[in-house]
Amino acid sequence: MSWLLRPAFLPEKVMSPVSSLPRSLVADLPFSIGKRVKLYGFAETVRDQKRMRFIVLRDPTGKVQLTQSKGNVAVTAALDGLTPESAVMITGTVVAAPAVKLGGLEVLVETAEICGRADNQLPIVHESGLDKWIDHRQVSLRYPEQQLAFSVQTTLEEAMRGFWKQHGFREIHSPKLMGTFSESGSEVFSVKYFGTKAFLAQSPQFYKQMAIAGGMEKVFEIGPAFRAEPSFTSRHETEFTSIDMEMAWIEDHHELMDFEERWLAHAIGVVADVHGSDIEALFGVTITPPTMPFPKLTFAKALEILAELGHEPSRRDDLDAESERLLSEHMAATTGHEFLFITDYPARGRAFYHMRQRDRSDLTNGFDLLWRGLEVTTGAQREHRYDRLVAQAKERGLDLESLSDYLNFFRFGCPPHGGMGVGLGRILMRLLGVASIREVTLLSRTPKRLRP
Questions:
Q1: Would residue 104 be called left, alpha or beta, if left means φ above 0 and alpha means ψ between -120 and 50 degrees?
Q2: What are phi and psi of 386, to 5 degrees?
Q3: What average pLDDT does the segment 283-303 reach?
Q4: 357-383 burial, b if ≥16 CB within 10 A, otherwise e?
Q5: Mean of the pLDDT values across residues 262-281?
Q6: Which partner for 343 in 146, 159, 367, 406 could form a disulfide, CB atoms 3.0-4.6 Å apart?
Q7: What pLDDT score does 17 carry?
Q8: Which residue ranges form the domains of the chain, and what is each CATH number?
Q9: What is the rounded average pLDDT of the residues 401-417?
Q10: Rounded mean pLDDT of 356-383?
Q11: What does residue 126 show for φ and ψ, rounded to 5 degrees?
C-alpha cells in the first residue's frame, strides 16, 4: 500500500527494516558515529525548510538534532503532522557535524513514527506561573530542571537507604489507615471505613515504636503522611513524603543528632558527586557536603538570641518561621554553618510521648534541625516506660482508651529509643535552592488543590 494513500486510521509511521534495533540514548550517541540507531523522545522544536526538516529530539539524557531530507517521500509524509512536544520514534544514522551546536553531531532520519501527537497549542510555557505548571504537570515535568529534580530525589533516597543498610536498619511499611490518630487529633483527615471512621496517618510514629518494641532495633520508612493543616505556605503540603527512622538503645537525643548529621552529610555528598555540575548549571546552586558537627542551641538560648535580634516568637514553646530564619542567619554569620540544631524544647509544645529530661521535667529530649532557616527535621528520645507514658498522656487530657493500642506496645518491655521525621520535599527545596515545595513535588496537595 502506498504511504500517500494509506487509510487515516493507520499510525503515522514508516516501518523500520531494523525493528529489532535496540533503543539508543542521546548521551550515548558520540560513541555511535557511523552507526544506525533507534531513538525515542519528544520533538522539542521543529524547523521546516524547502528541502530539509530539522528536529531537536529530547530524551532524559540530552538533546540531539535530527535532519530529515524531504526527498524521502515516505518519511516526509510520516512527519508532516509533527508538532512540538510530540512523542516520536526514529531510526537513522549518526554522523559527525561540527557545525551543529548540540554535541557536534546529528542523526540522519531514515524511518519515523509519531507515537503521540501533541496539540498545536501547548497549555504552558516555561515562564508560566507555578499554579499553571501544576495544572499541566504532564508538560511541566518535561522541563530539564524538573527532570533533574526527580533524578536528584532518586539519588538522595538511594544514598539514604545505603547509609541505613550500612548501619543495620530495616525498612518497614506502616499502614496509612489508622483507628486512632498518631499525633494531635486536630490535624487529621477522617475517612469512612466500613461503617466506622478511620484516620489518615500523620506519621508512622506509633508503628516505628511498635517495631522497636518488637526487637527490630533500627527501622526506617519513606512514605506518605497526611496533615489537615489549613496552611498555605511554600513549605507545607497536606500530603507529603515523610522520611522516618527510629533507633533502640540510645543514651539520649544527642545520639540521634549525631547519627542524623552523618546520614545527611553522606547523602548530600553522593548527590554532589552524581549531580553537582548539573545542579549548578540548571539551578545555580553549588552542592557542598556539610561539615560536622552541626552547631546546637538550646531552645532557651535561642530565645535569648532572638531577643537580642529584636524578635519575639509568636509562641513561647516553639519557634515560628521568622525565628527559624533569624537564628539560621545568625548562626551562618557567626559560624559559617548552614545547619542548626535547636534542642531541649518545652514539654508543653511537644508530643506527649517525648521523653522528659531527668532534672527538668518541663523540658524534653527533643530537637529540630534547621537548614538555611527551614525546619527539615523533628526528633526526640521517646518515653518507653509504660507508667510514665500513661502519666504524660493523662497530663495532656488525652483519652487513654483511644490510645490503648499504642500504649499496649510498651506493656511487655521496650528498650530506650528515639527517632526523627524528615521532610523529603524540604530537603530537596534546600538542595536545589527553590522557593516552593511544590516545585519538587510530583503532584501538589494543599487545602485548595486536589487535582490533577
A1: left
A2: -55, -50
A3: 96
A4: beeeeebbbbbbbbbbbbbbbbbbbbb
A5: 97
A6: 367
A7: 47
A8: 3-116 (2.40.50.140), 134-440 (3.30.930.10)
A9: 95
A10: 96
A11: -60, -30
Give every CB contact of residue 21 below 8 A, 6+ residues apart in sequence.
36, 37, 38, 91
Please determine, for residue 15, whether its predicted confidence score (pLDDT) is greater than 80: no
Range list of β-strands (E), 275-429: 296-298, 339-343, 366-371, 374-382, 417-423
- The model's pLDDT over 36-69, given as tens digits with 9 standing for 90+, comes to 999 999 999 999 999 999 999 999 999 999 999 9
Q: CA angle, 155 as apex, 423 and 39 as ends, to 5°?
A: 130
Residue identified by cell 527494516 is 17
Tens of pLDDT along 150-204? 999 999 999 999 999 999 999 999 999 998 876 555 689 999 999 999 999 999 9
Nearest to 177, CA basis, from 162, 159, 197:
197
The per-residue DSSP string of 4-53 comes to GG--TTS-SB---TTTTPPB--GGGGGG-TTSEEEEEEEEEEEEE-SSEE
Backbone angles phi, psi at 68, to 5 degrees: -120, 125
Distances (CA, A) of 300 to 16, 77, 295, 318, 334: 72, 74, 15, 11, 19
Residue 37 grid coordinates: 540507531
By CB atoms closer than 10 A (0-12, 13-18, 19+), residue 201 is buried
